[in-house]
Amino acid sequence: MTFLRFAWAWLTSGQQWHGSDSIPLRVAQHLGYSGLSLLIAALIALPLGVAIGHSGRGAFLIVSLANIWRAIPTLGLLIMMVVYLGFSPLTWLIPLVALAIPPILVNAYEGVLGVDPDLTDAGRGMGMTGWQVLRRVEIPVAMPLIILGLRTGAIFVVATATIAAEIGTGGLGRFIIDGLASNQYDQVAGGAALVVALALLVQFAFVGVRRLAVPAGLRQAGRS
Amino acid sequence: MVWSWIPQNIGQILQLTLENAYLGVASALIGLGISVPLGIACVRWKLLYPPSLSITSAIYAIPSLALFVVLIPYTGLSDATVIIPLTLFSLCVLVPNVVDGLRSVPEPVRQAATAMGFGPLRRLARVELPVAIPVIIAGLRVATVSSISLASLGQLIGVSSLGYFFIDGLQRDFATEIFVGIAMVIVLALVADVALIVVRRLLTPWQRRHLPPAPPSVLTPASASREMAEVS
Lengths: 224, 232
Known about the structure:
Chain A is an all-alpha fold. Chain A has one domain: Orthogonal Bundle (MetI-like fold). Helix content of chain A is 80%, strand content 0%. By secondary structure, chain B is mainly alpha-helical. Chain B has one domain: MetI-like (MetI-like fold, Orthogonal Bundle). Helices cover 79% and strands 0% of the residues of chain B. The radius of gyration of chain B is 22 Å and the shape is elongated. The C terminus of chain B is likely disordered. At the A-B interface, helix 1, helix 4, helix 7, helix 8 and helix 9 of A face helix 3, helix 4, helix 7, helix 8 and helix 9 of B.
């Protein structure tokens, strides 16, 4: 395994682990970019998606957004931001947030829309107000899809944060982009190995989030 | 926008668009070629499905740039270095759609095919796969559009695609070139999407004849077996 040999050699050589370009710093940057973008995207997309699903209005917007979203070339978007805005935190923050919004929005919408009307009727029959039905019935039942949307958003954000190194951000993509530019494949391989590990760890974290956030009754139903 | 740049470079624009289209479409089609047999196997042997889902979704989580560079020692800077990761990504969408499509075949339809003397293989090819086509093509549309868009990243490792316009535009600080690159990626993705809708219509002529489709409750296995019980 040539790749693993190169990656291992670079990761264990020692000097990468401290200094201004150290692995811990790059990991922290990568998680910082990804976490902040995902948080802002969730703050925008979750209320909007739940509201659209609850009211049924604006569904056309959702469908068009979901379709065009996958076609947008992330690298082109990042580079266009640099050319127009120069380099500032907004240069990477805007595209990362914009790319994370559609999956979160669409899944929250579909989750709330797909709640069995019998359940919401039962909630109303028990004397719940519209707000209580939303908070105590619709959102918990929609939780598996809401988490799936956040997970897909996280995949996009982690991947795009890697590519953002091309426009001069920090993060783990730095090792890959700089290594490619200077023909140092050991650094490229080490960076890629770290990116793979980080992406898988983030996914693993979402399995845990799902376990905590999805009501026990639904987990049982989901298995069948 | 420097509009005159477009006619001056039309040759290169078309060339890179074709290369980008090739990378994206080839990935999605190879992905289809893998996921149809894999999906059939997952329906036939149910134990195979959960691990297939976990593995494909784990691969999907890996950023494409990382997968490209993992492959460099083995496939060099060739098209395969881009096509292999994009193919693997497409499986995450295609395999569940093939499985859902095959599972959506109503039990009475399956039984009717068997009663007409179709063996398992002929039933699969002549009845089950055709019925599954709309769901499979829905997945193929998502896979194709994503692959076309992601193929532009191949330029980061030097594989020719529309991403060239992004990187060259960045180096020259030339917005027109970047706009053209983005526009061509999106146009290419939309063209492929529309083409697949046309393919679906051609392959499923029965869907046009009786609209709207029968409500699924009419054909659930439960009601079918109840009717069977009454007959016997």
